[in-house]
Specification:
The complex is a heterodimer of chains A (about 55) and B (about 725). With about 55 residues, chain A is mostly helical. Chain A contains two helices and no strands. Helix content of chain A is about 55%, strand content about 0%. The longest helix of chain B has about 35 residues. The C terminus of chain B is likely disordered.
Amino acid sequence: METMEGVASYPMISLLIFFVFFVLLFLWVITASREHIREMEHMPLEENDQPQNTVL
Amino acid sequence: MEIQQFRYDNKIVQKFLYATLFWGVVGMSVGLLLALLFLFPKLTEDIPWLSFGRLRPLHTNAVIFAFVGNAIFAGVYYSSQRLLKARMYSDFLSNFNFWGWQAVIVAAAISLPLGYTSSKEYAELEWPIDILLTLVWVAFGWNLIGTMLKRRQRHLYVALWFYLSTFITVAVLHIFNNIEIPVSAMKSYSVYAGVQDALVQWWYGHNAVAFFLTTPFLGLMYYFVPKAANRPIYSYRLSIIHFWSLIFIYIWAGPHHLLYSSLPDWAQNLGVVFSIMLLAPSWGGMINGLLTLRGAWDKVRSDATLKFMVVAITGYGMATFEGPMLSLKNVNAIAHFSDWIIAHVHVGALAWNGFLTFGMVYWLIPRLFKTEMYSKGLSNFHFWIGTLGIVLYALPMYVAGFTQALMWEDFNPDGTLVHGNFMETVQRIIPMYWMRAIGGSMYILGVFVMLYNIVRTVMSGSKVEDELAEAPALARVSKRRVAGETFHGWLERKPVQLAILATVAILIGGIVQIVPTIMVKSNIPTISSVKPYTPLELEGRDLYIREGCVGCHSQMVRPFRGEVERYGEYSKAGEFVYDHPFLWGSKRTGPDLHRIGGKYSDNWHLNHMFDPQSTSTGSIMPSYGWLIRDRLDRGNIQTKMRAMVKLGVPYSEEDIENALELMDGQATQIERNLYADPEFERTYEADKQYALENGLEFIDMRDREIVALIAYLQRLGTDIKLAEPIGGTD
């Protein structure tokens, strides 16, 4: 490549990747079940020494 | 489902903890020595391996890789096993990780003071040690991923994603930044040059901060804060969002180390924008950590671990607010090269990394040795003196930074610099260096108190044993998403896919910034008058690298009125095309050197290197007597030039064959120049006479190292023809 012409497609592609990814991520985070969140956040705690072997 | 019994490996955690404490003391002591060298430059006179330039990388490498590194491994090994309900995949890999890491550190501790350095910050270790480091890191990752694959806990808690992304990203950064051509057993040249080397270096350097000093510690925060507070993290949803946004955005921030330099504007701007955006995910982490304690603040009062963690997370918030602010170009214009940056680094390092480590240590030691801490009072004392130490370190450095920056840019009404003599700016901040040394001493005193407390605790505790645990094996579940399972829920139980996605996320920033910088020629406009270094100058440059001059002197004149007035024409990208590696520097303890060529006589340089205070009153530079005495080793010059040719530097075959003659010619000229000073002639001839009379070996001046260094310094910045003669005295 000799010059920067046409390089604008790089940032455009990355912006699209970012945008789509984070929209999807946000949607999932908002809709995640309380049950699942509760299970995940209690993982480090002592009470949770009962093995978690749920399918989900 | 049958319940399986297994044991958590606690012995490996104990080993890493001991190593953390040992190297913490070593690394911080070197730091204290450096702080004292600012105040007493002659403290280690004539001991090359204790000179500031050589010790600085020892300090940074020791505190980052030896202290923080071992702390990371201690915490990761402890928490991963329990979060995955599995013993580490391989005891052999655990021990290889441990002993290999210590071997790397010892190799660093020996090689760096001896001057074996690549000069690239936090990547100074020369190529054989880089290779060892790679092997040890691979062992770590293999061990971690292996444990994930044989886990009995299906879903991966957020801490584990941080650990995984750490492993992947550090591997990528280390490999790409350390691509170099060896010229001897302990010397190599970066394949990148000038602007490109700068970009790759700071893509690495900033992400060493991100993925070695931040993400593993966030992972440790997500495990140890809930453990210590006995409550879950404030918002698991937030942790997911901030994890992905952090690893996506952090990578792009590298160019904020290169603002107003010769890096192309588009790359600088990307660095600025992404650094500002980084505020959000970083504070997401801070919020999550601190608000975990909502309603439980009374626990902090009575628990040393929580105290340390609160200050650690607060320090993290401070540093990650300050960082984006420092990335604004107008703020950066003031802060870059000044002690403000040192303040910023040490808030992050002492508060976030140091205090989180101490908090983790105070939590782990009692559990490993099955006893209480010997003295709660001493733990609390450590907390308070450490906190005060941080404040007394950072505040003086802020003041020093503002002072320097404002003095450097101060103009008289008639257009001349108020402080044309750089030494005035150095002397003005000496009181700040005193306070910093005291602050640092307080911090390290706290560490010694902790050490004593731990020794007494261990002596009264039980032997560390691997902990028995039981859990059923994981039942097989479909690889595909199960009914009702969301995408992220599926991802949380698929470490390999998680790793791949994380890898893609971290690669994007690097590719978008680095590929065009390397491939698009117009980013670095060619300057036809720029020529490669002569063989003698190349050797001189390698001496500059060996002595670590880049630790105190920059080679990047920014396009500011004050800099152009003081140093000369601002630095152009095309001037650095043959600089393998680049030497732009990060700090101006001493003045910028990019336009030093031709400003002073050869005699001035000789006298300055022999005794800096003799030519520059008020200088705090150490003396380099050995350069004036020692013979230059010319044995490798042709190999060096051939390596440069491989990297695209246009030396002809003739240049290489005649290298020794060319060196002789240039060196003899410099020797002749030195005779301009009658005092030099007198002492030199007297030395020669004395050696002759006593049958001692005498090395001609033209064969000594100093002549090569002078050749290099006199070449700096002279390749471009300047429009007007440059005034200004520094």
